[in-house]
Amino acid sequence: DTGVSQDPRHKITKRGQNVTFRCDPISEHNRLYWYRQTLGQGPEFLTYFQNEAQLEKSRLLSDRFSAERPKGSFSTLEIQRTEQGDSAMYLCASRPPMRVGYGYTFGSGTRLTVV
Amino acid sequence: GDSVTQMEGPVTLSEEAFLTINCTYTATGYPSLFWYVQYPGEGLQLLLKATKADDKGSNKGFEATYRKETTSFHLEKGSVQVSDSAVYFCALIYNQGGKLIFGQGTELSVKP
Predict the structure, then answer these.
(1) CA A65 to CA A63: how far, in whole Å?
(2) Is A25 on the interface with B (CB under 8 A)?
(3) Residue B48: CA atoms inside 13 Å, Cβ hemisphere, count?
(4) What residues form DSSP beta bridges with B34?
(5) Per-residue model confidence as pLDDT tens for chain A (115 residues)
(6) What is the Cα gyration radius of chain A?
(7) Would you call B92 helix, strand, or coil by DSSP?
(8) How far apart are CA A79 and CA A100, in angstroms?
(9) Which of A87, A106, B13, B54 has the fewest other C-beta atoms within 10 Å?
């Protein structure tokens, strides 16, 4: 068990460019979550998957954001036409099935800087 | 909607001092409650949890008791160490499989 892996760790991009982040969850975890964390704030929920199905999306997830989890394994989060306000840490987390009240396992995050 | 409010930081303490970080929540029903810790340059780690009223979560000398009557989950430690310096987040999950809702975080700095 190598934990939740996120790639890349850091990404600097120019405004207007598209970026894609990847998350590899713990293999036996069927639920995968994306969060965004800005400086001095707690993580904010973006979206989550149960296996390959995307079950909930936050209103924070504008139409420039899209997430996928093909085959219920790794997940990608794409941001199109990036804006400076997208600069943040993007966190991925996974959890096992049917574990009421159990905490998640978080990855180390991808820090995005839009210049 | 559901929300979590933490005391504002930063909190600066001397080594061996007593720590309290206040956390209150607003939720319909009975959420599970968590404290997460984020050390500099690292990801979020689960520190402790409580799943029902009057439960006490504990880990590494930290404790928190789920108080339904005051909708609180305050984090305490009797004697902090320099290595406890980190950002602490209170969080709740309302329903199974649902999302974690975090407070804004409280930065703790412990001086030797």
Answers:
(1) 5
(2) no
(3) 19
(4) B49, B91
(5) 579 999 999 999 999 999 999 999 998 888 999 999 998 889 999 999 999 999 989 988 889 999 999 988 999 999 999 999 999 999 999 988 765 446 688 999 999 999 9
(6) 13
(7) strand
(8) 32
(9) B54
What is the spatial distance between Cα B106 and Cα B44, in angstroms, rounded to a whole number? Answer: 13
Tokens of B82: 């320099």
Size of chain A in residues:
115
Supply angle C-alpha B26, B28, B30, rounded to 5: 95
CB burial readout A42-73, b (16+ within 10 A) else e: bbbbbbbbeeeebeeebeebeeebbbebeeee
Cβ <8 Å between B96 and A33: no
Chain CA centroid to CA A99, Å: 21
CB burial readout B62-86, b (16+ within 10 A) else e: bbbbbbeeebbbbbebeebeeebbb
CA distance B16 to B39: 19
Q: Chain A contact for B56, CB < 8 A?
A: no
**With an 8 Å Cβ cutoff, are A103 and B49 in contact?**
yes
What is the number of other CB atoms lying within 10 angstroms of the CB of residue A95?
22
Model confidence at B16: pLDDT above 80 = yes
Closest residue on chain A to B31 (Cα): A101
pLDDT > 70? residue B45: yes
Q: Do B43 and A106 touch (CB under 8 A)?
A: yes
By Cβ distance, the residue of A31, A50, A107 closest to B43 is A107
A56 touching B, CB under 8 A? yes
